[in-house]
Amino acid sequence: MEQFLLVLLIFFLTVVTIQVVYYLFVFGKFSFAKSEKVAPKHLSVSVIVCAKNEEENIKNYLPLLLNQNYPSYEVVVIDDASSDDTRFLIEEFQKTHHNLKLVKVENNEAFWGNKKFALTLGIKAASNEYLLFTDADCYPATNEWIAEMTSHFTMHKTFVLGYGAYEKMSGFLNKLIRFETLLTATQYFGWAKVGKPYMGVGRNLAYKKEEFFRVNGFINHMKIRSGDDDLFVNEAAHKNNTTISFNPEGFTYSRPKETFGEWFMQKRRHASTAVYYKSFDKFQLSLFYFTQLFFYLLPIPLLALQFEWIVVLSAIAFRYLVSWISLGFSAGKLDEKDVIYWYPVLEIILIFTQINVFFRNLFSKPVTWK
Question: Cα–Cα distance between 215 and 5 in angstroms, integer?
């Protein structure tokens, strides 16, 4: 029995070591990075938004896109076969905004419900080489959004990964959603800083049009309903062409789900694309999540039997200290400090939610983007 517990202890200490390496040397690349103000480039930009039955969001948020403090840009809104007044509203805005372009998408049986098909048409219709993406239910934090995101483009940096935040609202679910968003951003920003970018979010993402055509657009994953953002970044981004933007002026915001069921379905859609990532990216994500899980499971028998309990508790405290500091610095950069106070509870709930998502997606997958 004692030999078994010793093996368990070694396994647990290995798990803690891996977690500490992630939080200090991978996520820490972002968490502890200094914010640098970059001079605006004033490149000609096409802001691309895909909308399907979004009349309320178009009414509320399109004016914020059309009134950016930026000298040369157009807004390309793709109406993906909406059945409400989305198209009508866009046409009304066009009467007073000459930099607004409407791309009309009719139902296509071969690509029904596929956002990538609609986005492809929008990208082809864009007049400019530099593309900036957000969703119809998102809005920029400031009128300097375009200027901030595009300021990070250089001759070699042709991908800019931004932060798509969720509004702060009352309730525990809101904190859980924002904690997951914080953790995800810390991961993809950290790996991008390491030189292994693996994803971005379509709520706030920029790249040059040449990158889209270099990999033939979404052709390699067109049949996968989700992934117009993360799968594309996973395929086309690399250490030499990718940078990040985390200045609050360049954030976007959207309203989070208000019920656990809605959020759970959203997570299932997002998780369904991860299985198509590159092998290394699937490995590093799996390693992080499995060590997260075992960090909570392995101490239970060790502490219950009081086997080297001082070592076990010391390891737990050390991992918590490192992860709390790393995520705390990240939360400061991304204006999510309030969720850190709930960190241990939120992490535990998120871990077991992800396990539920994993098993549910084994048997069925979401099939449409809206």
Answer: 51
Residues of the domain holding 56: 38-181+193-255
357: left (phi over 0), alpha (psi -120 to 50) or beta: alpha
What value does the mean pLDDT take over residues 189-194? 98
Under DSSP, is residue 78 helix (H, G, I), strand (E, B) or coil? strand
The residues pairing with 360 across neighbouring beta strands, listed in sequence order, are none
Residue 364 lies in a domain: no
**In a domain? residue 265:** no
Q: How far apart are CA 90 and CA 24, in angstroms?
A: 47
Residue 243 covered by a domain: yes
Q: Phi then psi for 48, rounded to 5 degrees?
A: -115, 125
Number of domains in the chain: 1
Distance CA 224, CA 269 (A): 11
- Write out pLDDT tens, residues 106-132: 876 555 558 899 999 999 999 999 999
Tell me, what CATH number does 197's domain have? 3.90.550.10
Q: What backbone torsions phi and psi does residue 47 show, to the nearest 5 degrees?
A: -85, 125
